[in-house]
């Protein structure tokens, strides 16, 4: 043990120098830390800047949180899905009440109707009702005196063909006199008419226009009809080729092949309604297809 504590003069000098260096570094750290702390306390400008930076970071965080929230766009409450209702804060029971009401072919026409049917709270209604968007004929109904009834009394006879307005010449304002047709629907009718050179072929094409219900179409026919139909080429159903059939709206090569195959099996069609028995035939479009065919 004694040999371990025996050092030369050079080793002793090194040990003392090392200890002095350690003490110097410790003192430098202690004084520097205290001086920095005092300088921070003595400069309120730095504290103010730090507080400003914190407020800016907090505001940016709040903006980001707000941006991540799901946005609500105007919608028709009659078509709320399960997911849409969930994001709006509705319960499953409230959504089921709405779907049950709509299944009975009834419509929600106001925010009050919506609350009476779904039983949502006033707080939820106040949040989502500003985004309700109902059809124009609900929000701005025309007086009944301006509309035309579907039925006529004994004192009012239906208009003759000559008295009706040509559907291919009617203006948007004239179409808007029909109860149930607003600015959008009238423009949609004219847009469909202008899509084809010459306009409508027949009144039945009104069924092709999106948004026109059967009731509104019947009201249109009271005052309007196609007097100058567009000239089209009609084909004999029992002699038309496949290339001729595919030029008809809603008939493709596959349906044309089935028509010719059915025609061969039947030794010719006896009626245009026999097309309903053709495989994959678009039954709902038969009235449009009949315009291009004859026997």
Automatic annotation (TrEMBL):
UniProt cross-references to Gene3D superfamilies, sorted A to Z? AF1531-like domain (1.10.150.280), Photosystem II 12 kDa extrinsic protein (1.10.150.320)
Read off the Pfam families from this record. HHH_3
Q: Which residues cross the membrane?
A: 12-31
Please provide the record's keywords in A-Z order: Membrane, Transmembrane, Transmembrane helix
Please verify whether the record's keywords include Transmembrane. yes
Q: Which GO terms describe its cellular component?
A: type II protein secretion system complex
GO terms for biological process, alphabetical: protein secretion by the type II secretion system
PANTHER family reported for this sequence: ENDONUCLEASE/EXONUCLEASE/PHOSPHATASE FAMILY DOMAIN-CONTAINING PROTEIN 1, ENDONUCLEASE_EXONUCLEASE_PHOSPHATASE FAMILY DOMAIN-CONTAINING PROTEIN 1
Q: What is the name of this protein?
A: Helix-hairpin-helix domain-containing protein
């Amino acid at each position: 043990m004694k040999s371990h504590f025996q050092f030369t003069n050079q080793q002793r000098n090194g040990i003392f120098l090392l200890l002095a260096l350690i003490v110097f570094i410790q003192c430098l750290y202690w004084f520097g830390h205290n001086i920095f702390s005092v300088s921070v306390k003595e400069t309120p400008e730095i504290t103010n800047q730090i507080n400003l930076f914190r407020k800016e970071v907090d505001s940016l965080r709040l903006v980001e949180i707000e941006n991540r929230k799901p946005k609500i766009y105007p919608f028709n409450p009659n078509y709320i899905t399960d997911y849409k209702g969930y994001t709006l804060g509705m319960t499953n029971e409230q959504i089921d009440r709405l779907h049950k009401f709509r299944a009975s072919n009834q419509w929600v026409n106001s925010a009050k109707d919506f609350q009476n049917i779904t039983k949502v709270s006033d707080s939820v209604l106040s949040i989502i009702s500003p985004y309700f968007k109902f059809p124009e004929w609900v929000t701005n109904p025309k007086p009944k005196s301006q509309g035309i009834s579907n039925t006529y009394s004994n004192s009012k006879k239906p208009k003759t063909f000559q008295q009706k307005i040509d559907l291919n010449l009617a203006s948007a304002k004239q179409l808007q006199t029909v109860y149930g047709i607003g600015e959008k629907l009238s423009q949609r009718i004219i847009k469909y008419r202008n899509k084809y050179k010459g306009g409508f072929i027949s009144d039945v094409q009104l069924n092709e226009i999106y948004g026109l219900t059967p009731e509104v179409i019947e009201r249109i026919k009271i005052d309007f009809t196609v007097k100058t139909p567009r000239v089209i080429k009609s084909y004999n159903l029992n002699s038309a080729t496949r290339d001729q059939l595919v030029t008809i709206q809603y008939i493709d090569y596959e349906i044309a092949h089935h028509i010719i195959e059915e025609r061969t099996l039947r030794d010719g069609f006896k009626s245009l309604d026999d097309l309903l028995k053709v495989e994959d035939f678009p039954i709902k479009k038969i009235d449009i297809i009949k315009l291009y065919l004859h026997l």
